[in-house]
Design brief:
Shape: globular
Helix content: 55-70%
Structural class: mainly alpha
Number of strands: 0
Radius of gyration: 17 Å
Largest sheet: none
Distance between the termini: 51 Å
Length: 213
Amino acid sequence: MSVWWPYAVCGAIGYLLGSLPTGLVVGRLARGIDVRQYGSGKTGFTNVVRTIGVRWGALVLAVDLAKGAGPVVIARLLSDEPYVQAIAGLAAVAGHDWPVYVGFRGGRGVATSYGAALAMNPIASLAVLPAGIALVGVTRIMSVMSVGMAPVLAVVFVALAVAGVDPWAYAVYAIVAAALLIVLHRENVRRLLAGTEPKIGRGGERRAEPPPV
């Protein structure tokens, strides 16, 4: 059998698990709403907190972390090739961002990408977490941590690869995941620069309906 089968299998597993619409399901069960019709229009932790509260947001966060970590662990069990793990992690992030089950409208992949990084190197991933939490504590803006810490984690993973501690596949994963996360947060970056980015718990109002065609 081709050596490419682990990439295909683990990529598919990662995408399908990542596509599980946690925030959408929780919003339906907890409040009977589609969280994509509120706040940022995304299905991740931050928008769930804005729309239905911290308790439900914590549940979404836990599951979305698992959506990233699970495919990496499965890939490690199926193959010794670190790049298979990287593909599985990136596929999970892509699934979360563009979920096949719900019209390819998902989140921005912050928790899912961090979950995959945790599975690759839990010590390094946890080491940068206090700085991210401190950023949120000072600014009260989640996107500051999301945009700021992804490049930091990528630098840490690159440094570990250069030092020979971790494989370069992990560094490649971290770089690609950080770049994707920043691109998907481009509107947040514009609002941060303009001083209009909502703080935690704010900005959960219903989104304006699109004009009729």
